Amino acid sequence: MRAKIRDTEIYFDIEGAALVPNGDQMQEKPIAFLIHGGPGADHTSYKPTLSPLSQKLQLVYFDHRGQGRSARGSKESYTLENNVEDMEALRQYLGLEKIVLIGGSYGGMVALSYAVRYPQNIQSLIVIATAASYRFLELAKANLAQKGTKEQQAIAQLLWDGKFENEAELKEYFQVMMSMYSITYKPEILGKSWNRTILSPDATNVAFGSFLRSYSILDQLHKITVPTLVIAGKHDWICPPELSEEIAAAIPNADLRIFENSGHLIRVDEPEALLDSIMEFLPKNWV
Predict the structure, then answer these.
(1) Which position among 83, 118, 128, 220 has the lowest Cβ density within 10 Å, counted as fewest Cβ atoms?
(2) Domain residue limits at 77
(3) Which regions of the chain are under pLDDT 50?
(4) Are 232 and 273 a contacting pair, CB within 8 Å?
(5) Quick one: which of 139, 146, 157, 148 has its CA closest to 232?
């Protein structure tokens, strides 16, 4: 499905019913936006791992502008600011009131940015393996210098510089770097999911070549007062757990959970534990 909003067209998909039988009544389930990372990836990385959440939530997947199955446009428009405003426009387009936000990695940055701008529109917040400031870049570079191979350090320079020339080059980056992202990395398994993913190097280049270098909302996180779950992987190289710790410390009464056997891709390393944590966090009366 596609929504023509603002100056673009956003692809979205919905999983699970919103109105379900519950005894002698019909009950409305909360609506969750699942916000993908990258930037430069798409929403399909969440399928089918997070599909069981549809037991308690109606899930709205979507691709950021210029990414996945959403419309391409001016590269200069592929900004965090527009990602936040596109989400708000999509919420209005779908006629929704308060929503649940679930965002991982860059999707967590978008979720946090949306939450501080539109706190009145969110019901609860779940951010996974993310950061609240550009400091993640210096920590990632230091971690890669310490733990990465020479080949990984070389190809990561394309990321830091925002210099990927095409989709094939970005795919090669992830293939070379995957043992850094996932501590349970198995090429024969992850290869299938990456083959399903539409990669968008322009979005990656714009982000790492410009706005992520000055991204910072840590001092605004106190505006978030809804129930918040912050999840981190202990062995995450690019958004290490200390960044999740500072997010949780800045948001009143946030719940912090660090997964001991995960890297950045917690949904790959500990998928069942990730689902269990999210399910436990959601209120019991949500169907």
Answers:
(1) 220
(2) 2-281
(3) none
(4) no
(5) 139
Nearest to 193 by CA among 265, 130, 264, 261: 265
Q: Please report, for the domain that includes residue 144, its CATH number.
A: 3.40.50.1820
The total of structural domains in the chain comes to 1
User: How many other CB atoms are there within 10 angstroms of residue 198's CB atom?
Assistant: 16
Question: What pLDDT is stored for residue 175 in this prediction?
Answer: 92
Residue 142 lies in a domain: yes
Is pTM beyond 0.85? Reply is yes
pLDDT score recorded for residue 190: 60
d(CA 151, CA 126): 34
Q: Would you state the pLDDT for residue 186?
A: 80
Residue 85, class by beta-carbon neighbours within 10 Å (0-12 exposed, 13-18 middle, 19+ buried)?
middle
* Domain-embedded: residue 34: yes
Provide the pLDDT for residue 195. 77
Degrees to nearest 5, angle at CA 193 with 93 and 154: 105
In a domain, 287, yes or no: no
Among the listed residues 271, 61, 51, 273, the one whose alpha carbon sits nearest the alpha carbon of residue 182 = 271
Residue entry with tokens 């936040």: 84
Helices 201-209, 167-181: axis angle to 10 degrees equals: 70
User: Of 198, 179, 176, 140, which is closest to residue 268 (Cα–Cα)?
Assistant: 179
| Alpha-carbon distances of 154 from 1, 50, 170, 182, rounded to whole Å | 39, 33, 13, 19
User: In this structure, what is the dihedral angle of CA atoms 135, 139, 142, 147, given to the nearest 10 degrees?
Assistant: -160
